[in-house]
Amino acid sequence: MKKLYSKEENSWVLYDWANSAYSIIITSAVFPIFYKNVAMSAGVSAVDSTAYLGYTIAIATFILAMLSPILGTIADYKGLKKKFFTFFFIMGVSATALLAFIPGEQWQLLLILYMLSTVGFTGSIVFYDAFLVDVTTEDRMNRISARGYGLGYIGSTIPFIISIAIILLAQREIIPISAGLASKISFFITAIWWGLFAIPMFKNVHQRYYIEREPNPIAKSFKRLSQTFKDIRKYRALFIFLIAYFFYIDGVGTIISMSTAYGTDLGIDATNLLIILFATQVVAAPFAIIYGRLAEKFGGKKMLYVGIIVYIIVCVYAFFLKTVADFWILAMLVATSQGGIQALSRSYYATMIPKEKSNEFFGFYNIIGKFASIMGPLLLGITAQITGHTSYGVFSLVILFIIGIVILTRVPEQNGNTADLGNTKIV
After folding, report:
1. Which end of the chain, N or C, is less surrounded by CB atoms within 10 Å?
2. What is the value of pTM for the model shown?
3. Other Cβ atoms within 10 Å of 395 Cβ, number
C-alpha cells in the first residue's frame, strides 16, 4: 500500500513543526512581552517601545529583501541550496539561544539579537520554501504546503505550553526564579526545539532540481538575476500575483509580528495574552489544513480571496477593541486564516515557477514579502506615534488588503510553469 506521504514530504513538513516554535514564542508571544517589560522598565514609553520593535522588524526584513534574490540565484547551482539553508538556520538558532543570556535592562541589545535571529529564521525559510518543488509534485503542493503550516501550529503549542507553564509558575513564585528568567528559559527552549526537529530536513531533503555550476558563479548569478526579472515579466499571471502578494502579505505579517505588542498597549496582561496566543495556535492548525483541502476542490485563488476578506474584517474589528473578550474574538478570526493564506500563497506561487530556478523565483517571492513587511510595521509605528493610539495603525492596514484582493482578481487563470528557462538537471 502506497504511503500517504513520502519520507521527503514528511521531513520537509517537519521543519514547519520545528521553526513554528520561533514564530509563536519569539515573534508573537513571549519575546514581545518580555522586551516591552524590559524597555518600559528602562523608561521607554509603551507607544515608543512598540514603534522601536516595528522599526527593528523593518530593518531585519530590509536586510533579507536585499539578500534573498542574490543568494537565491547563487543557490540554484548544484549543491548550494542546502548550504545556504544551513547558514541561515545556524544564525537563527544561535541568536535565539543568545537571547536567553542578555543581562539586566539591555533592551537595545535584545533588539539587535532579535534582528539577527529574525534574519536567520526568515533566511532559512527562503530556501526551505524553495525545497517544496524538490519534495513533491505540482498537484500535491497545496496539500503539502498546508500540512506544513497545520503541523507547524500543532508543534509550536508543545514548547509554548512548556514555556507558559514555567513563566506562570515563576509569576506565582511556585518555582524560585523570576518571570524574566522564565522568559529567557523559553527562548533557549525555542532554540533547542528548532534545532532538534530540523534534523530530518538535513538528512532526507535534497536538491533535485538545479543548474550545473559554471566559472565565475557570482558574476553569472547577477546576470541570471537580471534575466530572471525579465522572465518574471513574461509570466503575466505570476507577475500580477507577486504585486497582489506584496500588498496583502504585508498586512498579514504586520498583524502576526505586532499583535502581542498591540494587546499589551490595550492593557491586556501577559497571562491573558499567552493563553489567547496558545488558543490561536490550536485553532489555526486544523484551519490551515482545511484551507489546503478546500483549495484542491475550489482552487487556491478562491481560498486566498476568503483569507484576505477575513483579514479585512480583522483590521476593522481591531480598531474598536476595548476588552479582553474583544481580543479573543480578534485572535480567533486571525486563527481561521493565518496559516491558510500563507500556505496557499506559497503553493500557488510554486505551481507557476520553473523548478530548476526555484531559489531565484522564491528569492523574488521573498523579496516581495520582505519589502512589504517593511512598509507595514513602519506604517503602524509612525501612525501610532503621530496619533498616540496603536489602534489607528492597525486600522490603516486595511487598505493593503483591499489593494491586494483587487489586484489578485486580475491574475489570469493559467499556469506560468511552461518555459525552459535553464539547463535543468533532475537527479
Report:
1. N
2. 0.72
3. 18
174 exposed, middle or buried (CB, 10 Å; 0-12, 13-18, 19+)?
exposed
Could you state, in order of their start, the residue ranges of all structural domains in the chain?
7-204+217-417
Residue 270 region by backbone torsions, left for phi larger than 0, else alpha for psi between -120 and 50, else beta: alpha
Residues 6+ apart with CB under 8 A from 321: 266, 327, 330, 391
Q: What pLDDT score does 425 carry?
A: 36
Which single residue is written with the C-alpha cell 535565539? 96
Q: How is 185-253 classified by DSSP, letter by letter? A: HHHHHHHHHHHHTTHHHHHH----EEE---SSHHHHHHHHHHHHHHHHHH-HHHHHHHHHHHHHHHHHH
Distance of CA 402 to the CA centre of its chain: 21
CA dihedral 141, 142, 147, 149 (to 10 degrees): 110
CA angle 330, 332, 338 (to 5 degrees): 95
Tell me the residue type at 305: Y
SS3 425: strand
**pLDDT block averages, 10 residues each, the chain of length 427:** 77 92 84 86 80 82 74 76 91 95 85 92 86 85 84 85 89 87 93 95 88 70 68 76 87 73 72 79 84 85 91 84 81 85 85 74 71 68 73 77 92 52 35
> Which residues make beta-bridge pairs with 209?
426
Q: How far is CA 76 from CA 81, 139, 287, 305, 361, in A?
A: 6, 23, 33, 32, 10
Distance CA 54, CA 67 (A): 20
CATH homologous superfamily, domain 7-204+217-417: MFS general substrate transporter like domains (1.20.1250.20)
